[in-house]
Every structure is written in structure tokens, then in C-alpha cells.
Amino acid sequence: MTGTPAAAAAGDGEGALRSSPCSPSYDLTGKVMLLGDSGVGKTCFLIQFKDGAFLSGTFIATVGIDFRNKVVTVDGARVKLQIWDTAGQERFRSVTHAYYRDAQALLLLYDITNKSSFDNIRAWLTEIHEYAQRDVVIVLLGNKADVSSERVIRSEDGETLAREYGVPFMETSAKTGMNVELAFLAIAKELKHRAGRQANEPSFQIRDYVESQKKRPSCCSFV
Ligand SMILES: Nc1nc2c(ncn2[C@@H]2O[C@H](COP(=O)(O)OP(=O)(O)OP(=O)(O)O)[C@@H](O)[C@H]2O)c(=O)[nH]1
């Protein structure tokens, strides 16, 4: 996906807020950012969620940042997710840092067929801790789980890293759609819970929710 900060700020992305302030078609909003190395599948992940389609073919790296809106219903509440797709390339890092501050949630992707994208997750988490809000929701995603023949990162390695940082983890495929919706629904549920929690309501545990709902690749016998 292509886009520029200026274009995004001007509402050039589909994300311009169109609901009338008198009758909003949603109950709350949340800003979500997709982060991770170039080529891990952030744009495809967003398109799969938004349109149910997979962009195959020539890889066109994102320029800068752009966003899309999607309203999801969780626990009777309509949550408008404003989803920001960032460029993974190093040269755009200073642009994307400026957008971290008011994000409520971050989807941090690596590619299970690309070791350096996994190794760089620690550096991404360092940046997140430097630029994002302290209580930002983070979900770690091992994408391209459909390409089992080229897998170089075991699912257990993703799980171990996620446990170390105390974040939920799942493997996903922007191609087949595996766990794509779940990643956003988990975030929407967490944001809804934070926004309207009653004193005697049991707390929502995003990690438990993800563990109970996530699908595992049918062929994941890589050792
Ligand atoms: N098999 C497979 N290919 C994928 C998947 N997700 C993305 N791809 C492919 O990986 C390449 C990169 O995908 P993008 O979504 O453009 O990657 P990106 O993370 O947005 O990259 P930047 O914009 O540079 O940050 C494309 O050729 C996609 O078709 C997936 O889940 N499975």
C-alpha cells in the first residue's frame, strides 16, 4: 500500500471520519498500528481483514503510512478500529515514530520464513517502549504460516518470545486469512473492556482469549 503522512493526515486514506457526530455508527474507536520489518505482510494483513482479499504478485513496499477504518462488533459494542499500516523500511522509521504516541494497540508482525524479521522483534519492542504509550496493547504475530515448506521460525520460538515480553501470540496468514480477524477482534475486545469496565465485572485477559481462540497451522511439524 502506498501513502504519505500528508495524504493520511488529510484523510486521503479511506479513514476519513464520515459518521455524523449526532448519530455515530459505532460506540468507541481505537487506533491500531501494524509494525514489523518490510515484507512481513502488514499491508496484506490489513487488506485481508478489511476486504477479505489477498494481494499476491509483485511486492510494493509501503511508503510512509496510511490508514483504513473498520467497525467490528464485540460483546454488543461497535468498535471502530482505525488501522494504520506503516512502512517497514528503516528509512521511514522517523516518520512512523510520530504516530506511535496515540496508538492504543500495536500488531507486531514477523515472517515465519524470514529469520531476521524475527530477530528484529526485540528491536521493534525497544522502539515501542520508547515511543508508544505505556499501556499500549501489543500482539505478536508470526505471519505467512501458510508457507510451511519455507518455515525457519518454529511456533514455539514465537511463543517463548511472546511469553518473555508478556504479550499474546499467534501465527497468522494474510493469504488464507488464518487468525487475521481474531487478531483485530482480540484488540477490539480489550479496548472495549478498558473503556467500559464495571467494578464487579471479571477482567478480560487478552492472552487467555487468544490462546482459546487461535487456530494452529495444520502442517507445523518443522523442527
Ligand atoms: N504466502 C504468503 N505471502 C504473504 C503473506 N503476507 C504477505 N505475503 C507476501 O509478502 C510480500 C510482502 O507483503 P506486504 O504486505 O506488502 O509487506 P509489508 O510488511 O506491508 O511491507 P512494507 O510495506 O515494506 O513494510 C508480498 O509479496 C505478499 O504477497 C502471507 O500470509 N502468506
UniProtKB/TrEMBL annotation:
Biological process (GO) annotations held by this record are:
positive regulation of autophagy; protein transport
Of the GO CC terms on this record, one is: endoplasmic reticulum-Golgi intermediate compartment
Record carries keyword Hydrolase: yes
Q: Tell me the organism.
A: Chinchilla lanigera
- Pfam families given in the database record: Ras
Secretion signal, residue range per the UniProt entry: none
Q: Where are the transmembrane segments?
A: none
What the entry lists under PANTHER family is as follows: PTHR47978
Which keywords label this protein? GTP-binding, Hydrolase, Lipoprotein, Magnesium, Metal-binding, Nucleotide-binding, Prenylation, Protein transport, Transport
Needed cofactors: Mg(2+)
Query: What name does UniProt use for this protein?
Result: small monomeric GTPase
> What CDD domains has UniProt attached to this entry?
Rab26
Which major enzyme category is it? hydrolase
Give start-end ranges for the coiled-coil region(s): none
Enzyme Commission number(s) of this protein: 3.6.5.2
